[in-house]
Amino acid sequence: MQEDSNSRDDTRIAPARHRLRRRGRGLVVGAVALVAVGVTGVSAATLSRHDSPEPAVVSLDAQARAEAAGRADRSTRESAAPASPSATTAPSPAATTASPSARPTRTATTKPRPKPKPTPTATATVKRTAKPKPSWVVPMKGAEITSCYGQRWGTLHAGIDFAMPAGTPIHAAAAGTVVKAGDAGDGYGNSVFIDHGNGYLTHYAHQSSLEVSVGDKVAAGEVIGYEGATGDATGPHLHFEVHQGQMWNQIDPAPFLRARGIDVAC
Description:
The protein has seven helices and twelve strands. By secondary structure, the chain is an alpha+beta fold. It has two domains: 2-75, no CATH class; 144-258, Distorted Sandwich (Glucose Permease (Domain IIA)), CATH 2.70.70. The relative contact order is 0.09.
């Protein structure tokens, strides 16, 4: 009898344990369902509020990074910006004096070297020392004067005689034009007459040969012929005359030549 009562008690206790297990399982399942419903509600509310499928955690992370980048950019600009406006507009005197470009260069302070003077050439020396050619010259330089202008043997000797060996060159006393060349007659033999264009003519008589012709232009000192003894002459010599105004109006050549820088012993 006791065994039966124990078995009946066990039979009663077993269904009760099963019911407790079922209730526990139901509570667990219900709790899980409530959690799921809560998560789903939160997700639905988040999606409806932001209209974005991304989780709120990702959006918060991107915003934080953007703010950090903005702060870093501001700090960079502030460090690169000048400390004050006066530092950019007015440089300090110490910086100005310490700059190498502010120092004067040597070329600005040194004196320029004087240019070397050109060395005179031999040609320039000759030009400086050479005297200008005279307008009048001696017709036969170095000759002996054997007779002057004046009365001789009862007649007028109308010129000056220059004696040198035969063939000595005869020079034009001044520049002019040859107006007569050849035998002049009256004992003058071979003669040359030069018109100097200033109212005076010169006459060169007794020549052995002539070097010019009528119309030739001659310069002072140019050879016009050679000494001889043609015409009425006792020996080779040059008979030189000065005619004033017209041919055969002879004057004394000595004072005429002295007035032009030529001294003759007459």
